[in-house]
Design goal:
Helices cover 36% and strands 20% of the residues. Helix 3 packs across helix 13.
């Protein structure tokens, strides 16, 4: 891909414009993003509902230290975030799936080279109503349930050891990067999914649907399970090497394959990074990644991801 990776930032944006990772020589009472200089202005973020808890937590923490910065965070979905990015309508697009070549081309035609930043990790979680009590399900069984044209009405049809309760299926719609990733990874092709499930762009609606039906079952980002763990069941997934339950450890290590995945923020090119408030926010996200992730109940970027990003922007090891 021709979009800018973080390790090329220093070659295209001046250190003065970035104003990142510079230690102040003396004490300062002014709010900063870590640069030793006060920042102000607006930042717009749009995109993935899965990344939303992280982005919102980051925005609130950053604004707490930078009272003159106003950050607006949307959760219209990864597709909407990319559209806003390419249209020059947002400084940062959140995404739960990696940007594709066609979208990169659209952005570049508009004079925007998206800058990819890996900010967290996620595991698409198979949530159930507690009454359904699914301890483990294979990727093949998931495909039988969810693939286009499936008429599976209860899990016992794909495995007699699974419950025979009538299913009520919920999940995100086609505006979602989670939908893209799940359908491609489990069903073999993006968009390959049965027509009779209940889709929603709002993850909370998915949670409520699964919680409200004895046969409720769905898929969504791990953080939404974490937020509602007292009301939901979660199934381990077996992709051939045994049952693995999603957790911070199994997601970050990649053991929760194939449903573990990175989460992204895409900055709207060097023009966006030339705004001191945007540059300071990016620096803040990387410098405080673990704390932000813990607040948002998402899985932080692993050491390789975060150290690579920090080195690329000159912030150094934290």
């Amino acid at each position: 891909m021709s979009y800018l990776k973080l390790n090329s930032l220093l070659a295209v944006v001046s250190a003065g414009a970035l104003a990142l990772g510079v230690a102040a020589c003396g004490e300062s009472t002014e709010p900063t993003g870590g640069s030793g200089e006060a920042v102000s202005g607006d930042i717009t973020i749009e995109g993935s509902s899965t990344v939303f808890p992280f982005a919102q937590a980051a925005a609130e923490a950053f604004q707490g230290e930078n009272g003159e910065v106003n950050i607006t965070v949307g959760d219209a979905g990864s597709t909407a975030g990319f559209e806003a990015l390419c249209a020059g309508e947002t400084d940062i697009a959140d995404a739960s799936s990696q940007i594709d070549e066609e979208t990169v081309k659209t952005c570049e035609e508009a004079g925007i080279e998206p800058i990819e930043l890996t900010i967290a990790n996620d595991g698409i979680s198979i949530i159930t109503n507690p009454e359904l009590a699914v301890e483990c399900i294979t990727t093949e069984e998931l495909a039988e349930v969810w693939e286009k044209g499936s008429s599976v009405a209860n899990l016992a049809e794909v495995n007699p050891d699974l419950p025979d309760t009538e299913l009520a299926l919920y999940g995100p719609g086609d505006e979602s990067g989670t939908w893209e990733y799940f359908t491609e990874t489990i069903n073999g092709e993006e968009g390959n999914i049965r027509d009779d499930y209940s889709p929603s762009a709002d993850d909370n609606v998915i949670v409520q649907g699964v919680e409200g039906e004895a046969g409720g079952m769905g898929f969504l980002g791990f953080s939404y399970y974490e937020q509602n763990a007292d009301a939901l069941g979660i199934a381990a997934v077996d992709s051939g090497d045994g049952c693995v339950t999603p957790s911070s450890e199994t997601i970050q290590s990649g053991e929760y394959a194939p449903l573990a995945r990175p989460l992204f923020m895409y900055v709207a090119g060097t023009e966006a990074l030339a705004k001191p408030q945007v540059a300071a926010f990016v620096d803040y996200v990387l410098a405080n990644n673990t704390e932000i992730a813990e607040t948002a109940l998402v899985v932080p970027a692993n050491e390789e991801q975060i150290s690579g990003d920090e080195e690329a922007i000159g912030a150094g090891a934290k």
